[in-house]
Amino acid sequence: MPERDAPIDPQSVKILIADDDPGLLESLRGLLTIQGYPVRTAAGGGAAIEALREKHYDLLLLDLTMPELNGLDVLRFMQAAGLETLTVVVSGNSTVEDVAGALREGAHDYLKKPYEPAELLATVRNALHHKALEDANRTMRARLEKSERLHRVIVNNSPDIVFVLGADHRFRFVNSRVHELLGHARRDLIDRSVFDLVEPEDRDKAEYFFEQAASPHPHIRSVELALKPGTPSRTRRFFEVAVWPSSNSDDADNGETLIYGTARDITDRKESEAFINFQAYHDLLTRLPNRALFRDRVDVAISHAQRSGTQLAVLFIDLNRFKVINDSLGHTMGDRLLQEVGQRLQACIRKGDTLSRFGGDEFTLLIPGLASNEAAIQVADKILESLQAPFKIGDQELFVGASIGIAIYPDAGDNLEALIKNADIAMYREKSSGKTGVRVYSPDMGGHPPRRLQLEQDMRRALERDEFHILYQPQVDTETGHMVGVEALIRWDHPTLGLLGPAEFIPVAEETRLIVDLDRLTLRTAIREMQRHSRAGYPELRLAVNLSPVLVERDDFVEDFLGILGETGFPPDLLEVEITENLLMSDTPDTVHKLNRLGAAGVQIAVDDFGTGYSSLSYLQKLPIHTLKIDRSFTHTICREDEACIVNAIISMARGLHMNIVAEGVETEAHRDYLRDLECPMIQGFLFGQPAPLHTLLENEALFAAPTTCQ
Ligand code: C2E
Ligand code: MG
Ligand code: MG
């Protein structure tokens, strides 16, 4: 704003003089020109209006009394046109009313004729100063208005809620964003307390925050709050609320300290944070706690058990057959199965227990505050029982069993690692015994079984170094007690781990596909050994080999298999391949075609472990199957009267379908006798000894016949 006395450059102002008296006009012009003012003259009201229309003048010296259009007319014109030219009325014989009228019409000042030149110049100077001030004011106001408009646009278009609170925490102002984000009408909020908008669980936090924010030295500038929606159809949203108190009296409204604030919608961020958090501690597929959370919980439970002198149990639950299901039916089915297994397991546990998906098909369970070892075994039994019913996934019925290892604190370890490791060891022992049950860890179980990676590396070398060999298990004619066939079972002489059974390495071999080489090796070796020994008096002895689904599913399986058979010249009708039910379930025309080709070549086909998978007899009827091998878990129910009927049913139905039957897992004479009474034609099991080298079996063959003859 210019100072009142700041000099005005005469060259920069434009002055118009209007008078009907040419003499006066001339003398005024002369006077002002000498002072350096550029001046234009108008000889009368009409000329003045014309000049004013033409361009802008800062100052007009206007004679009031002029013929035709007089001074008042000119003033009225100026008012109507909204001109900002300042007017000084110069009047000779005009009355006081005339002058007053002129001032009313917008004149700024007046000068009475005759005047002293000095008086005129002072009036002109004053008027110009006034005009300069007015102009400066106007510019300032325009600038202010512009900046206010700008601020309004910014505030109203801000992506954040912008608000002003009074010292009583009631809204004085809030922008329209509050309606878009929360559904509150702006006017409804005015005079309402900000706390009405805060969700109850954040109320205390909000009160503390706004109290301290209004203090002279606030130390927290922002806070995260959940705010209530204005309509029930909307969901709550999360905001980062920041405030600035206006302790400055310029900002204060009627002396009241205001609080300016913004609230930024951070709902998306919060939700993704929550998701990331959940993800960090949960398995997304089953939504169960993951390994990390499980470890945390076990840690906490151990410290609690230490203080209170109580026990806790860690259970390691490993599903059986999951891998085969996953491979043959696809990952989508596998995933859904895992989800359902998770739900069933969850239904078996109490509130304080933690069930987690440890990885793959492994689950772990923490049971804190354990009353006794038996309590943990009971939970494990309950879990196994809950898994017995088939899982209906799509239109499939799937069966999965589990092996469970239990480690009890403090006996099986006093730290997290030891407990998990030992539960795993116990589970592994249970699984490698071929059973699907529960085992509690005891120190005599020894160390950890070899882990996948080591096995995988070792297995490649083992194939080159010939570390595998075959043992045979006799298949015995139930009537005569004679060995009519043998099943080839692979073993691994591991250089450091000792003799390993298939349960310990076949899962890894299948995962790495090394099983293809293993199965071909078994086939060749077994045929060679059979040929060597059958020449020695057992020309009719049949050979059964196990084939992994991984091998059968290969495109070149049939050519490759028949190729080996052709090379060796082994009679196909003495060879039986054992496949699993799960392979059949993949039900591709491809598999059926392959099996048909094998059958056409004379090879016998057996379904191994029948009853543990999910095929039905009617289904098998459509396939080229010669033999059913009843799984040992059914054979073992023989002595339990209520359950033995499953074996009866399988045998009579298989007979109806003209299939050969081999009952596996015959361990006792009672088993054998029962099966003989049912006319099950063939049996296999530890009753005839552990799997052994072929020559040993052949040397002792005579022994088999003996027991069957005595009742
Ligand atoms: P499987 O084909 O059902 O073989 C029978 C398994 O039951 C053998 O276990 C055998 O030792 C065991 N067994 C036999 N009689 C009894 C008994 O009376 N009671 C009990 N509790 N168990 C008995 P093994 O040798 O550990 O083989 C396990 C599985 O590994 C086999 O089950 C078979 O599926 C697989 N397998 C073995 N050799 C090969 C192979 O060369 N290739 C493939 N792909 N799989 C093989
Ligand atoms: Mg078998
Ligand atoms: Mg079997």
List the helices and strands and how they pair.
Elements: E1 15-18, H1 22-34, E2 39-42, H2 45-54, E3 59-63, H3 71-81, E4 86-91, H4 96-104, E5 109-112, H5 117-157, E6 161-165, E7 171-174, H6 177-182, H7 186-189, H8 203-213, E8 222-227, E9 237-246, E10 258-265, H9 267-281, H10 291-308, E11 311-319, H11 322-329, H12 331-347, E12 354-359, E13 362-370, H13 373-386, E14 391-393, E15 396-398, E16 402-409, H14 416-432, E17 438-440, H15 452-465, E18 468-477, E19 483-494, E20 498-500, H16 502-512, H17 515-534, E21 542-546, H18 549-552, H19 557-568, E22 575-580, H20 581-585, H21 589-600, E23 604-610, H22 617-621, E24 627-630, H23 632-635, H24 645-656, E25 660-663, H25 669-677, E26 682-683, H26 694-699, H27 701-709
Parallel strand pairs: 1-2, 1-3, 3-4, 4-5, 16-17, 19-21, 21-22, 22-23, 23-24, 24-25, 25-26
Antiparallel strand pairs: 6-7, 6-10, 8-9, 9-10, 11-13, 11-16, 12-13, 14-15, 18-19, 18-26, 19-20
The structure holds ligand C2E and magnesium ion (2 copies).
Domain Response regulatory: 14-128
Protein name: Diguanylate cyclase
Organism: Thioalkalivibrio versutus
Structural write-up:
The protein is of the alpha/beta class. The protein folds into 4 domains: 130 residues, Response regulator (Rossmann fold, 3-Layer(aba) Sandwich); 115 residues, 2-Layer Sandwich (Beta-Lactamase), CATH 3.30.450.20; 168 residues, Reverse transcriptase/Diguanylate cyclase domain (Alpha-Beta Plaits, 2-Layer Sandwich), CATH 3.30.70.270; 239 residues, TIM Barrel, CATH 3.20.20. It is 45% helix and 21% strand. The chain is built from 27 helices and 26 strands. Strands 18-19-21-22-23-24-25-26 form an 8-stranded mixed beta barrel, surrounded by 5 helices. The radius of gyration is 51 Å and the shape is elongated. The N and C termini lie far apart (127 Å). It holds the Pfam family GGDEF. This is Diguanylate cyclase. It comes from Thioalkalivibrio versutus. Keywords: Phosphoprotein. Its cofactor is Mg(2+).
